[in-house]
Design brief:
heterodimer, A: mainly alpha, two-stranded antiparallel sheet, 13 helices, about 0% strand, B: mainly alpha, globular
Chain lengths: ~325, ~350
Amino acid sequence: MSALGSFLAGAVAATAPILVTAIGGAFAERARYTNIAMDGMMLAAAFAALSVAVVTGSAWIGLGAAIAVGVLAALMMSWIVQVLRCDLIIVGIGFNMLVSGATLLLLNVLYAEPGTYSPFDAPTLPRIRLGAIDNHFPLIGEIFDRQSILIPIILAVFVAVWIIEKRSVFGAHVIAVGSNENAAAAVGLSITRIRTMALVASGATAGIGGAFLAISALGVFSVDMTGGIGFIALAAIFFGGASTTKTALASVIFGLAYAASTHFQGSIIPVQFVLMTPYLATIAALLLMGLYSRARGRPLISPDIASPVAPNDD
Amino acid sequence: MSSFRQSFRAVAHSLIAICLSLAASFLLVLIVSEQPLDAMAALIGGSFKSLYAFGSMLSVATVLTLSGLAAAVGFRAGAFNAGGEGQLYVGALAAAIVALSVEGPSFLVIALALATAALAGAAWIIVPALMRIYLGVTEIVTTLMASYVAPLLTLYLLLAGFRNPNTGSPETPAIDPRYWLPQILSPSNASWGLFVAITVVAAYWVVLSRTRSGVRMKIVGLQPAFAETVGFSKDRILLWAFLASGALAGLAGAVVTLGAEHRFIQNFSPGYGFLGITVALIGRLSPVGLFAASLFYGALLTGATQMQTASDVPFALVFIVQGLLLLLVTARFRIFRWSRLVSAGAKSP
């Protein structure tokens, strides 16, 4: 196997969970419903995927459970924000911490494991077998052969989301709500419902992203195993201006950074600097995007974070 | 609305959030534990069983007060410093390096170590701050990303030059007791850091309510556009708020190093930086509220340590409580006015 082939195969595997999580999150972002809880949704989904896969003996049911957990999390968050009128960003941060604590507790209580649950007979999703293509296009073979079946599924999700964004009524509604909610309300759209559905879409794709971490290559769950991938997906959304295609492109860039960081492990570069790469790359990408927007005379407008509990806020 | 009624409602909202979160976690304990009563008793009362436990509680509360202030200063000016954990790490290591390498009168070395830690914390937030102010890049993601980098950087520096060669774990040698923050309630690890924290709380109150900068900061947080109309630069105020926020989180790290651990230990923090966000919001960003919230959460963390040894419920329960608190703390609790559903949708972000 060539060095390039193995690097690109790593890049595909690193991109997949970021990309699928980000394109759903971009939908929520378009409805101006920033989903800061994608990291926690992924973590919860990863835990559910492995646990259910082990109990039922089927990785596919595990995948279904992961998606269900993502959707339920989105519904719960939306309920808290809409009905209890909580601050969306704070709720998202809280949800991440809740999942981080809950999965740690469940690891202890259910499996008596302090940090990692890795049952030896855990079912995992099947892998792609390319077989014959190998001979004609060796590089394609090296990159895609033996990858998880989730890779083509994620590509299909990407196409589906892209079509929904560009061609469906729902996609148009989401954009309408996001760009001018008063106008959207005036023509009779239910802002609450559309935002909730956009968040549910994000929960579902974050569920797939979480399942990818837990039951694609190995059947494993470890504490905080996302390592901030959900936030990197969020950065991809900001970088891509919440458009499906640009967000996907940004995810690929961050996936490459991730693959590079694994690739250089064991080289002369100290391992800590190697591990920093994805996070530094994310900051650098956002910096470049900010500079670019400013140079074009269209500075970004970051979401207003008014003091969330200021005394005169109601 | 009178200011008294406002604060009453704020306190009531925080208390409802606390009660609901604790109730939910007790329910959880009932489900997962065989000794639920022992677990609850240890969680709630553990900090008051002995002088040692009480001291540990104060020690944790000291750190939380400072990291909570870090978050609160940001929120006041409309900035969300989600990376307090990273600033805490660089501050903790900076304090250890100064205390291990500088010789001199105790007071001066301690002051220098605290100041260096604050500077390190401020330096750690400067890139996200400038990106937010001048480029409009949201600071939530950048500060968080920086907080993933910080522990890796401290680990690298530790291994590269400051590690104690006589231990297996990644930590610096012990700091000379002359450069510790003086202990109180010995043998617990409470220290004069508590008075440092109280002083900073007082300073926060004075700045916020008695100085022009404090008033401007609140204006920037509540009505950014208004700041320009009144004729002062909101960018400058925001930058100072960011720097103060980072500095306070760095100071929190220094208080752990000089007051409690007396060395820098990699992985020393059970999420003090993130807990600061919770503490700031539970305390409604007010000086007194914030200090009270720190004591509350300090007691919970200390109680949880005892709960873990006294029962079958793991320490992780406190992180669940923390998550629930954040989910609920910004609620207005008008659950029964369903008709508001639609207008609430129109208002949210």
